[in-house]
Write a structure and sequence with these properties.
The structure is a single chain. The protein has helices at 23-30, 48-53, 63-78, 80-83; strands spanning 2-4, 13-15, 19-20, 87-91, 101-114, 117-128, 133-143, 149-151. The protein is of the alpha+beta class. The strands form two sheets. Strands 2, 3, 4, 5, 6 and 7 form a six-stranded antiparallel β-sheet that branches. A two-stranded antiparallel ribbon has the order 1-8. The protein starts with a strand and ends with a strand. The relative contact order is 0.26.
Length: 153
């Protein structure tokens, strides 16, 4: 069942698509230009030796990847309004390793009237398959009364 954005209320949750963070994804994002000689770049996101040199036990995936998953969920939720004034503040409390599956989520925390519009504040997070939070934060955006749909949970 779909709930119109105009009917969302505090406590409503939205869940994005789960994605497996493979080595291919890590190389595509953090490896530099594909046509660069000696591709990929050697760094803690692409190379086991570089990760070890940085004090890590293995390659870690760049947080930019799953931050993008949260932003995608915000765009799905708020539509064009996100691009016209959405704000996000996140922290990454835990590294993500190659082949972990990550899923973005948000929960409406507050909906207030501001300048004849409603502005929502949401808690955002990504969790792995063990339900450990690997990204946490908040976001806010004006709610447009038409267009965007939310799935009820």
């Amino acid at each position: 069942m779909k709930t119109p954005i105009s009917a969302v209320k505090v406590g409503d949750i939205r869940v994005g698509h789960a994605r497996k963070l493979t080595l291919a994804r890590a190389l595509a994002l953090s490896g530099g230009p594909f046509d660069k000689p000696n591709w990929p770049d050697k760094n803690l996101h692409t190379d086991a030796a570089a990760a070890t040199d940085a004090g890590l036990s293995e390659i870690v995936v760049s947080g930019t990847q799953w931050e993008g998953y949260v932003v995608g969920l915000l765009v799905e939720t708020f539509g064009q309004s996100w691009f016209e004034g959405g704000v996000i503040d996140i922290k990454i409390p835990r590294s993500v390793k190659i082949d972990e599956t990550i899923q973005p989520k948000l929960r409406f925390e507050e909906i207030v009237a501001v300048d004849n519009q409603r502005r929502a504040t949401v808690k955002v997070w990504c969790e792995n398959a063990e339900q450990m939070e690997v990204l946490v934060g908040s976001a806010s955006c004006v709610i447009r009364e038409t267009g965007t749909q939310l799935e009820s949970t």
